[in-house]
């Protein structure tokens, strides 16, 4: 005698008058499987030991694996009744187009990179010279002697007068190298600060890179230093 196994939806219960082989009930889904044979509706043969336990929901598993024939399941999949995750991707044409656009953008941007770096180096060098001029002014006040910066084509050197009033200058710090491609011109000459931190006239120092971009460092007669 065939042994019947009934599966009932977890949130519903079979009524007392409901036959044990009903396939549908009011609250959920009731499924019956018989050992040794298949039902008249073409469902799969399954036993209690073979029934898999799934986390997708008990009633859904019953409908998919027990009650609905394969033809119904295929039709439901074609109509979108059974949703499946699909993996999105890119076609070869899309990849080629993106690569082409990236190449065009790179070809336009790469030639501008050296100039952008040179502009940054120019601004940085002008700020460094202005900082060392302020330091030379402070050294002139603290040592009660004149101080200055002397420039060459590749570097500049902080100097101070020793002894005071002698007109003889000695190194007053490490030599600072100019960034490659940077030149500095002074007008009318090298700024010199006296013991009060003042200068006899205004000075202009122009910092220029290889592309012609320039920054200007100005020194007023009262010792004020600005970068523009």
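Q: What amino acid sequence fits the structure above?
A:
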């Amino acid at each position: 005698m065939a042994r019947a196994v009934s599966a009932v939806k977890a949130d519903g219960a079979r009524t007392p008058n409901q036959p044990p082989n009903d396939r549908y009930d009011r609250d959920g889904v009731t499924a019956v499987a018989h050992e040794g044979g298949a039902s008249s509706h073409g469902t799969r043969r399954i036993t209690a030991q073979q029934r898999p336990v799934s986390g997708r929901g008990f009633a859904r598993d019953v409908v998919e694996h027990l009650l609905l024939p394969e033809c119904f399941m295929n039709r439901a999949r074609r109509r979108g009744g059974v949703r499946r995750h699909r993996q999105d991707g890119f076609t070869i044409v899309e990849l080629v187009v993106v690569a082409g656009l990236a190449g065009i953008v790179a070809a336009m941007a790469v030639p501008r990179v050296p100039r952008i770096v040179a502009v940054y180096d120019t601004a940085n060098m002008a700020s460094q010279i202005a900082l060392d001029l302020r330091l030379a002014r402070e050294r002139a006040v603290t040592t009660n002697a004149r101080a200055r910066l002397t420039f060459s084509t590749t570097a500049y050197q902080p100097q101070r007068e020793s002894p005071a009033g002698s007109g003889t200058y000695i190194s007053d710090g490490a030599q600072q190298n100019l960034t490659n491609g940077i030149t500095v011109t002074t007008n009318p000459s090298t700024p010199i600060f006296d013991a009060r931190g003042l200068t006899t006239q205004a000075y202009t120092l122009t910092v220029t890179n290889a592309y012609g971009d320039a920054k200007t460092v100005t020194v007023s007669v009262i010792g004020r230093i600005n970068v523009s």
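Q: And what stands out in the fold?
A: Confidence is low (pLDDT under 50) at residues 1-14, 20-56.
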